[in-house]
Design brief:
There is one protein chain. β26 and β27 form a beta hairpin. By secondary structure, this protein is of the alpha/beta class. About 3% of the residues have low confidence. The chain has an eight-stranded mixed β-sheet with strand order 4-3-5-2-6-7-1-8, with helices on both faces. A six-stranded parallel β-sheet has the order 9-16-13-10-12-11, sandwiched between helices. It is 44% helix and 15% strand.
């Protein structure tokens, strides 16, 4: 092996300081060399160390004493560089100067290459390589000299190395350390390595050999002029502007690879238009270039070049031929967000030190020019140095390594610049997320295993989890893929083709699975898994990769990292799984290291909610054939224009619980008693860094908080009775409590039953402390009850505060008799509840027979309070006569509760008579303000059907009747056995009652002792009176209850039938219609004659057309004629009377029909005139509308049969009054309006009452209705006269009579 030739070029400034530097190294353990850029320190310092006899070759320069070690026993001279490309290029330059082959004396070791022989003396490497060697060589005994170059970059590795070296120096007195950089903060480093003899010596070396002209060319980016245009202008200035053509290459600094590609395209296009410059080479320079591409940059050349570089060219690298530098002033800087736990690759302005480093790249071969594309003021305002990476990175790896090397607390570690407290906390938090440290921040078993792996903690955690889940083979492939740039290329000029070629690697759910597909395809493409004849050559293999847009260099890096991971696995003797891992095994392993990158879909938004409230989006270049699901996992979160997740995979939320159980924040919500499970259950909610993993999971609260569960169990299950059990004590206690509560509701007092706290204290005192569920109580009770038979039984004295006097069965009966039926009564004292007060359950079939006036009386025990409330509602003068009111209410209630008075008539009417007698005042019924009474003073009605289902409920019985009256009638008829059926036969009432569900009898009210006559069933039809006598009443017995029915004939069209009704008014109306039909059936010939001979029928039909058809008018005339001829009171009740009435009316039917026809004709003539008149006066909106409404109410479709005959005779006059009113309108519209304003309140009051009664009117209301019509005649057509005096005062008086 040839000996190295150690020479120091005199042209380099550092050579002039050689003696001073070597003396300092010989006499001090640490030396700080500050050499400006271009001083030659990077290449000459290793040679100086060799000259001092250090290194494995142990060759000492004459006059420098003996070598540090005997020949062949020396150690390495370590020389670190921040980047791989710098380490390899510097190694080649030093080897050339020593005139030795690369690797023999000087070699390098970087991530993917090792060009270092066994006997080499100088080892160039990245600081990460040296840091990794501390795992196996804590004191770095393989080195006798360490040169830490480019220390100004203050990367995380450099800061940790400097602190680590300071700690081991006392134990390695033979170790020499040289710290150097062009723009170093010398004093800070000197103080950092201070010893008993003071700070470390600092040697300053002059810089570049040629001056550099700094030119500032700030530009403002617009749509027409961007950064690339500014670069092109700077190139023109350097090469062509201001005189003859200038020689020398240009180095352009740009932030990233994308900007380099764009600038390259712009420069090629720009230079192609200049014949003298179109041959210039445009070369990129960045860290991920292949070795061949890097060598092309550093080779000698004979033509112009523009090298576009990232900040890798700032330090150590000397690109040959560079005379000019163009600095855009920005770089892509990695910053770690401690809040969102996301690494942000942001383009930021560089520091002054970095700018000077860039300027120092020129001026080495001739006078240089550095054009800065920003203002000088901007440069002056920038910070002096770049922020150390330790202040903008996660410290998890550093902390883990310190823990494993027992270097103490990270807070006490001698960093040059102490990291922030939140950065340290963040590092511990990440290690806790990975399960590497416990709550005391001490290493766990997983942490100790992670510390032995020379890997990123996240990747190491994935591998450890994969080892346990039999997915190690797949995870090694994915972990190595995540450590390099995606091997899939997507050039701008061939994006479509690249996407088409990459589709075969895409997976539906996971990009991780896509990596496995790609890995298998690469292996099969080479023929590694096939036979030998199918194995491709290297050239064919690389060509196939390029055809599929797969980057050959990155594939090589991927395989290198994978082989390194396999080596780590082999060193630990872990077994690779032979069976393929399924989707769950694989992604559970990946999830273990990426728990902070979980995302959950936010509604319909495209964003995902991530840890700690951040939101991120799926990366637009994600290789998935379908959209991921609601829950995803991202390999990394990177913020550029927005926060993106790269490496997406769909996961299940249940997996998070398996892997991240130690991180889940669990909350117990709403602990409550569950009757079915007989235990206290809480709803558990778990979150991972703020993301809800699951919510509402039921868990046994007794296992978490037995004391709290016991309290809820006693209160809800035992005190509130929400528990179904066979234990006898609970049923007995419930029954006793219900009895006392019933006394409270009846007396409307809340101080009879003791409060729940006393009952709770009773159970709490007797139950063991460990009983907190139904099952636990049952187990304990069965054993304890054998020794204490009366265990847990309450007594009446324990439950009652005092006796409830006056609460008797007669005052508060269990049933109330309504409609002849005993209805169940329930009492509730719960103000505000809809059922507060007395609730009576009424069967549907008896609803129509319930008397509303009876409901006013409630029950005897509640009568006093209601009377007191009614007396209080009176105005002061009559009320003062009853002072004291409670005593008067008691006296009146006592008089009203006697059987002869209670429940007869209206309570308000009865009280009104008492008030009038006592006060001698003209008190009106309306003076009782019923609306001021509390709801419990009115009976609450609950209607149920035969099956006990609730049909309606409320306190307005009239409204309930209007709603359910038809159903109630049908139910009553079914019960009576007379409901229309498809088949039926005559039967006795007893047989009908039996069919309805029970025994029964039916008798005529006049002869109850006689045998019940036979009545036909409702299904039979009759055309003559051949069914015997029709009784007025029927008594029906149903389960001990006696109901009263009202038989009636029903009009069935061509026949009549018999039905029993529950309301006499309805029965009477139906009976008249049925009886009329039966008379008509006996007079078929006469009816036919009348149909053909009604006078003026055709004329009337034309006028009646707006209301109905001619047939409808004819039928109404005949019906009215039959009504007047045969249906005079009393109505026939048997066949004999029916026949007699038929003979009497037969002869006068035609005359009556003609009379009815004449009246109808007169009415219709006036109707037509009124209609025309209203249409002619449409411009008088109010009057015309009022007249039209009056006409509509009078002239209904069935006005002939609907209107009583007495009032029908006045219809023509009412209609004529409309015509006269409208004739007078034009002459005096003010008078018409005045009369209408006077009339409107009267009519509104009447029709409002009709609406409240659901259209049901009695005789008094009908009388009031026709009085209103007469009032209209009096107001608007007084010349037509009225049959009796009428005025507003008379109407008010009639209204007062109706309202009591």
């Amino acid at each position: 092996m040839p000996e190295p030739v150690i020479e120091f070029p005199e042209s380099l400034p550092v050579s002039a300081m050689r003696v001073q530097i070597m003396d300092a190294i010989a006499s001090h353990q640490v030396v700080i060399v500050c050499g400006e850029t271009g001083s030659g320190k990077t290449t000459q310092l290793p040679k100086m160390a060799l000259a001092l006899g250090r290194g494995k070759r142990a060759i000492a320069e004459q006059g420098r004493g003996k070598p540090a070690y005997p020949p062949g026993q020396g150690k390495l001279i370590g020389h670190t560089q921040p980047r791989r490309i710098a380490a390899s290029s510097v190694a080649k330059r030093i080897a050339q100067e020593l005139q030795t082959p690369l690797g023999e004396v000087v070699g390098f070791k970087v991530r993917f290459q090792d060009r270092l022989s066994r006997d080499a003396s100088v080892k160039l490497m990245t600081d990460g390589i040296l840091l990794a060697e501390t795992q196996g060589d804590p004191l770095l005994k393989a080195y006798d000299t360490l040169i830490i170059d480019e220390a100004h970059e203050r990367s995380l590795n450099i800061d940790f190395l400097l602190g680590y070296l300071r700690q081991i120096l006392p134990r390695r007195p033979d170790l020499k350390i040289i710290v150097t950089s062009a723009t170093i903060d010398a004093q800070r480093f000197a103080d950092h390595f201070a010893s008993r003899n003071g700070p470390a010596p600092v040697i300053m070396v002059s810089g570049r050999m040629f001056p550099v002209d700094q030119r500032y060319r700030p530009f403002e980016e617009t749509r027409e002029h961007d950064l690339n245009d500014a670069i092109c202008a700077a190139v023109d200035e350097l090469w062509t502007a201001g005189g003859p053509r200038q020689d020398g290459d240009i180095l352009v600094f740009l932030p990233g690879e994308r900007e380099i590609r764009e600038a390259a395209d712009a420069l090629r296009k720009h230079l192609s238009h200049q014949p003298a410059l179109r041959s210039a080479e445009i070369l990129p320079l960045f860290a991920r270039l292949s070795q061949a591409e890097q060598d092309q940059v550093f080779e000698l050349h004979g033509q112009r070049r523009v090298v576009l570089a990232t900040n890798v060219a700032e330090t150590s690298l000397t690109v040959p031929g560079i005379r000019y530098v163009i600095d855009v002033g920005t770089a892509r800087v990695k910053r770690y967000s401690f809040r969102s736990k996301v690494e942000q690759l942001l383009v930021e302005p560089i520091s002054q030190a970095a700018a000077n480093q860039r300027a120092g790249r020129c001026g080495r071969v001739a006078n240089g020019i550095c054009i800065r594309l920003y203002a000088q003021d901007d440069f002056a305002q920038r910070p002096r140095f770049t922020d150390p990476e330790i202040l903008r990175s996660s410290l998890a790896g550093v902390i883990l390594r310190m823990k494993s090397l027992h270097l103490g607390m990270v807070e006490d570690f001698p960093f040059i610049e102490r990291p922030q407290a939140r950065a340290i906390a963040d590092g511990y938090q990440l290690l806790a997320e990975l399960g590497a440290v416990d709550e005391g921040n001490e290493l766990t078993a997983i942490g100790r295993e992670l510390a032995r792996l020379p890997l990123d903690p996240r990747v190491g955690r994935m591998i450890l989890e994969a080892r346990e889940r039999q997915a190690l083979d797949e995870v090694l492939v994915i972990a190595s893929a995540l450590s390099v740039q995606d091997v899939r290329d997507r050039p701008l000029e061939a994006q479509g083709g690249a996407d088409a070629a990459h589709v075969k690697f895409d997976d539906e759910r996971s990009e991780f699975t896509g990596y496995l597909k790609l890995w298998k395809w690469i292996a099969h493409a080479r023929g590694e898994k096939g036979s030998a004849e199918h194995r491709l050559s290297n050239r064919q293999y690389e060509q196939l990769l390029r055809q599929n847009f797969v980057n050959v260099r990155r594939v090589r890096e991927w395989k290198d990292i994978h082989s390194q991971l396999l080596t780590v696995v082999a060193e630990h003797q872990w077994r690779i799984n032979t069976a393929p891992a399924n989707y769950e095994q694989l992604h559970l392993s990946m999830l273990s290291g990426l728990l902070g990158n979980v995302g959950c879909k936010v509604d319909d938004d495209e964003a995902y909610l991530g840890a700690r409230g951040i939101k991120f989006h799926r990366h637009p270049g994600a290789h998935l054939s379908k959209k991921p699901g609601r829950w995803i996992l991202a390999a990394e979160l990177v913020e550029t224009t927005r926060l993106f997740g790269r490496g997406i995979a769909a996961i299940e939320p249940t997996w998070i619980e398996q892997v991240a159980g130690h991180l889940l924040k669990k909350q117990l919500l709403d602990p409550h008693w569950e009757k079915k499970a007989a235990q206290v259950t809480a709803l558990e909610r778990a979150t991972l860094y703020g993301i809800v993993v699951y919510s509402g999971r039921r868990i046994d609260f007794g296992r978490i908080d037995p004391q709290g569960a016991r309290e809820i169990f006693i209160r809800e299950a035992l005190v509130a009775g929400e528990w179904e059990t066979r234990l006898t004590f609970l049923a007995a206690n419930r029954k006793l409590v219900a009895q006392v509560q019933e006394l409270e509701h009846k007396s409307r007092r809340q101080d009879v039953l003791v409060d729940d706290e006393l009952i709770y204290a009773f159970y709490d005192q007797q139950l063991p402390a460990d009983v907190c569920s139904g099952h636990g109580l049952e187990r304990w009770y069965r054993e304890a009850a054998r020794q204490r038979p009366g265990l847990l039984l309450l007594t009446r004295d324990e439950l009652m505060r005092h006796e409830a006097a006056g609460i008797t069965t007669s005052a508060f009966p269990r049933t109330v008799r309504l409609g002849g039926v005993d209805c169940r009564a329930d009492y509730l004292h719960e103000p505000g509840d809809a059922r507060d007060g007395l609730t009576v359950t009424i069967p549907l079939f008896v609803l129509n027979q319930v008397n509303e006036e009876r409901c006013e009386w409630l029950v005897p025990g509640m009568l006093k309070d209601k009377i007191l409330a009614l007396l209080k509602s009176l105005h002061q003068k009559p009320r003062s006569r009853f002072v004291p009111l409670p005593d008067s209410a008691t006296r009146i209630a006592a008089a009203f509760t006697v059987p002869e008075v209670f429940g007869h008539g209206s309570l308000v009417d009865a009280l009104l008579r008492q008030v009038r007698e006592r006060t001698s005042l003209d008190v009106k019924r309306t003076d009782f303000k019923l609306d001021t009474l509390s709801p419990h003073h009115f009976m609450h009605v609950r209607v149920i059907d035969d099956n006990g289902r609730q049909l309606a409920t409320g306190r307005n019985l009239a409204a309930i009747k209007a709603e359910l009256g038809g159903q109630a009638r049908g139910a009553f008829q079914a019960l009576a056995g007379l409901k229309v059926a498809t088949q039926g036969a005559p039967s006795t009432v007893a047989s009908r009652a039996a069919a309805a569900g029970g025994p029964g009898t039916a008798t005529n009210g006049a002869a109850a002792a006689m045998a019940a006559p036979e009545l036909p069933t409702g299904s039979e039809r009759y055309t003559d009176w051949n069914f015997g006598a029709l009784p007025e009443l029927l008594e029906i017995r149903q389960k001990g209850q006696v109901l009263v029915g009202f038989p009636a004939l029903i009009d069935a069209g061509d026949a009549v039938a018999i039905q029993v009704f529950d309301e006499p008014d309805v029965a009477a109306a139906k009976h008249r219609a049925g009886l009329r039909r039966l008379f008509a059936l006996q007079l078929r010939d006469a009816i036919k004659y009348l149909e053909k001979n009604i006078p003026d029928l055709q004329k009337m039909g034309a006028t009646y057309m707006p209301l109905g058809s001619l047939e409808e008018l004819r039928n109404q005339i005949i019906d009215v004629a039959l009504e007047r001829a045969f249906l005079m009171e009393p109505l026939p009740t048997d066949a004999d009377v029916f026949k007699l009435r038929l003979d009497q009316g037969r002869g006068r039917l035609t005359l009556i029909a003609n009379e009815v026809a004449r009246l109808a004709h007169a009415i219709l003539v006036e109707f037509a005139a009124a209609n025309r008149k209203i249409k002619d006066h449409r411009q008088a909106i109010d009057a015309a509308a009022d007249a039209a409404q009056q006409l509509q109410r009078l002239m209904t479709k069935d006005f002939l049969v609907r209107t009583p005959w007495v009032q029908l005779q006045h219809f023509a006059r009412y209609l004529k009054a409309i015509v006269l009113r409208l004739d007078k309108l034009r002459a005096d519209p003010a008078r018409d309006q005045s009369r209408m304003d006077e009339l409107r309140p009267q009519e509104n009051r009447f029709w409002r009452l009709v609406a409240e009664r659901k259209g049901v009117t009695d005789a008094r209301l009908q009388e009031l209705r026709w009085m209103l019509e007469e009032l209209r005649v009096s107001f608007f057509a007084q010349e037509l006269r009225t049959p009796y005096p009428i005025s507003v005062k008379r109407l008010d008086k009639a209204w007062a009579q109706i309202n009591g």
